[in-house]
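Hello again, I could really use a second opinion on something today. I owe you a coffee for this, so here goes:
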Amino acid sequence: SRGFFYLALSLLAIPFVVPFWWMLTASFKKAIDIFEFPPPLLPHDWEFSNFLQAFTFQPFGRHYINSIYLAITVTLGVLFITSLAGYAFARIKFKGSSIIFILLLSALMMPSEVTIVPNFVFMKTLSLTDTHWPLILLPIFGSNGVVSMFMMRQFFLAFPVEMEDAARMDGLDRFGIFWQVALPMAKPALAAVAILTVAGTAFQLSRAWGRGGDKGPKRPAPAPAPVKGAAE
């Protein structure tokens, strides 16, 4: 029965493995051999120069560096801002907190496509086009930041009040309680927010086009243009 189970899993894995195998082997083929049918398991001639030629069509190295740099910067900003906001909404009672929280959540009902032009006009008004600032500020204070803030708030709602009281008796102020007690215990929530933020930031191509300004867009993520003569 175990052998039949593994055989069934192997058969089910074929539709998922074959496309990746074709993509990997096609990267070593000549352009004319890519669409050969039936596709061979291995290339007839291994063209290692394809990888060198790819970097002559697009500055992929720059794209990757920008993607990593923006992903790290945005993730750190989201973790800091949303953890503060989430803790404030969960543990600090202030006038209008419920209304502000509902207004923030209501922004999630607006499609992101609707905000492309207003965000561009707003960034252009601040003279931030043709820079990386829109790609840093919009994910932190946009809908992605609101989702992260909601996740942090839900975590801090379950934070024991007794621990806050003990920290306050030890002489910590409100920020000290957050920084030294609450935040270290929020590692699971911070990890979840970090994973979602990195995944959503590394390839934010639509926002990259929206910050082009007069000089045209400068794409931070890998964005290959069509290769001329690829089918020749």
About this structure: Residues 209-232 have pLDDT under 50 and may be disordered. The chain has eleven helices and no strands. Residues 50 and 56 are 10 Å apart (CA to CA). The radius of gyration is 24 Å.
